[in-house]
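Hi Y.,

Following your request, here is the sequence exactly as I used it, all 482 residues.
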Amino acid sequence: MTAKKTLQFVDRVQSYPPKRAPGERAGDFDEIAQRYVDQVAEDQAGRCSQCGVPYCSVHCPLHNHIPDWLRLTAEGRLQEAYQLSNLTSTMPEICGRICPQDRLCEGNCVIEFSGHGAVTIGSVEKFITDTAWDQGWVEPLQPGPARGQSVAVIGAGPAGLTAAEYMRVAGYDVHVYDRHDRSGGLLTYGIPGFKLEKHIVTRRVERLEAGGIVFHNSFEVGRDATLEQLREKHDAILIATGVYKPRAIKMPGSDAGGVVEALDYLTASNRRGFGDTLADNAATLDAAGKHVVVVGGGDTAMDCVRTAIRQGAASVKCLYRRDRANMPGSQREVANAEEEGVEFVWLSAPKAIEGGDVATAVRAAKMRLGAPDASGRRTPEPEPDGDFTVQADLVIKALGFDAEDLPTLFDAPELGLTRWGTVRTDGQTMMTSLDGVFAAGDIVRGASLVVWAIRDGRDVAEHMHKWLKARVDTGANRKVAA
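Below is the corresponding structure, written out as tokens. Let me know if you'd prefer a different format.
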């Protein structure tokens, strides 16, 4: 049976779900790709070669059982495929949408190496779990037998939500504290709807709430309670705040009007999508009718340029100091942006914002690639006499994120940090310098992918469970948060 349903990569052409026309999709924030119909999903899953060493799974941070649920999908056993997919991931339909599969599972697919085109793993993963939601196969979160111990999770992003789910299933009382008014972190406010429609995130959060996890939104540690006060209230703490401090551009005019941070811009756009009332300065975070320049080459930069197109910008340009081949963002996102009308100005680096108090242009230098640096990437160098100017009413800085100063924010000076400002943890236990305080996700590894945050949330839940169980075995006091 398996031989008939899989190993069809020679006879079946790779086919992703069709995308809406660029002109149509640039007019809204809906997801750009349609969903597979059942037969197409089965046919595409059947292209899997079922190789003995599944490089797709090896290069997936979650080590998802990809060949197995592809085979089940090809055989029409979709509910079983969902159950297997759900074993290793708390958010498979989210990963199916926003993971850079071209750099992870699909980029390491064996049949991609053979020239037949990778199996469309992400699209099948999305199809499986969306179907599971539609068919009612996604079961409610079932808490384990009550342990009488309480866990606090600081941060309601993917790492925090994942750990919260596993800890609740293990029987702990779980409280999630987040400074935003909605849970989800960057899934809610950082990633645009055309990549991840917000009801996809909301239904995951609602499932956790229905399972007894208590969410404390608009709660800032350091303002509403210190870290020490939360430690007094809970048996264990997880810090999963992510990294939100934008990296600065060191150039003249970077503080001029019309120069904004990427996350501020994306948050304002997502809030508009929710129908929120924005602050009085919201017009500065709207690209409508403006000449937009985005500085940066990562996935956040791609989110910004594509958002600006949808807001009706007069023009959108992306300045990146290296060439296309060395761009850190997803090549698929670059292609989507180009289709929608974004112009990429490769090998260019900003030197100054012109216009005085309000930006009118970006002066940039033409670059060339020199010798490789320690990471192996060729170092960009300025071309002699290569300066040029780009018109800009709105300049969006998308150069990545660093960790905030958590010891100061949390009023916890004893919290240990690395030299990069991220939280220092024990490599074996994921515990910080404070007893019973763990950390996971970007606040430990630095700005990274959602799938890595989910992996870290899964791993840290296991370590927290071991530590809490040991406390019971030794007769340590237990706390149950009100």
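The chain has three domains: 2-135, 150-244+401-473, 248-397.

Thanks again,
Q.
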